[in-house]
Amino acid sequence: MIIAPSILSMDFSKMNQQIVEIESTKAKWLHFDVMDGHFVKNLTFGPDLLKGIRKLSSLYMDVHIMVEDPEYYAGVFMDAGADGITFHAEACHSDEEIRKIIRLIKSRGKKAGLSIRPTTPTEVILPFLDELDLVLIMSVNPGFGGQAFIPEAASRIRQIKQAIEQHNYQVLIEVDGGINEETAKIAKEAGVDVIVAGSYVFKNQISEAVERLC
Q: Could you list the active site residues?
C-alpha cells in the first residue's frame, strides 16, 4: 500500500518540519492537488512550490492537475519536478486528446495517470488502461479538502480493478478524498494501491496517522 500525503492540508509555516516528519514514516509519495480556479472553483499553487519541495525531498512527487488545459500544465509541472502527472478525462475534448497527453507524459519518462469525477462513469477510463500507469478515483467532488468520503467510490474502484485484472494491465489505482482510518479500510478492501490523505495526516500526529493508514 502506497500512502501519499496531500500537501493541500500541509501547514506551510512548518513545511520543512512536516516534510522531514513525512520522510520518517512509511509514506512513499507526496500528492499535489493543482487547481486553476476554472476546471474546479478553487485555486491552489503553481510549479514553484513543487520546485521548492523537490529540493527538500526525494519522495515521489505525485501531481494531480485539475485544470482546463492539461496538456500545457502537464509540461509545466514535469519541468518543475513531477514524477507522475494525473489529469482529468473531463478536461479533454476527445479520446485522441487524452491519448496525446498520456503519450506526452510518458515520452518524458514520467508516469501517466487519468482521473474522473465521482459522477463520471468508470467506462470512460477503460479504453486507456493499456497505456496508463495510474487511475485516480475521486471519492469526493474535486475542488476542496476536508470533504466526506462518497461511499459509491468503493464500487467504482472494484469496477476498475476487475478490468485491470481481466487484462493483466500494470496500472495502479489511487483514491483521493475523505480518507481516514475507516474509509482507508473500505478503499483497501475494494482494491486500491495508493491512498491519498490530506487532513487526516496533517491535522493529526503525522507519523501515527500514516501508520494507521498502512
A: 33, 176
79-112 CB burial, b ≥16 within 10 A, e <16: ebbbbbbbbbbebbeeeeebeebbebbeeeebbb
Give dist(CA 81, CA 159) in Å, integer. Answer: 32
Q: What pLDDT is attached to residue 41?
A: 85
Positive or negative, the Cα torsion across 124, 125, 131, 137?
Answer: positive
Picking from 174, 120, 183, the residue whose alpha carbon sits closest to that of residue 148 is 183
Q: Quick check: pTM over 0.90?
A: yes
Cell reading at 80:
518543475
Residue positions counted in the chain: 214
Instruction: Give 194's contacts (C-beta < 8 A, 6+ positions apart).
Output: 1, 2, 3, 4, 29, 62, 134, 172, 173, 174, 175
- For residue 115 the three cell numbers come to 482521473
Per-residue confidence (pLDDT) for residue 145, from 0 to 100 = 67
**Which helix (H) or strand (E) covers residue 116, if one does?**
strand 111-116
Mean pLDDT, residues 71-79 taken together: 98
Which grid coordinates belong to 78? Answer: 514535469
pLDDT in tens, 146-172: 789 999 999 999 999 999 999 999 999
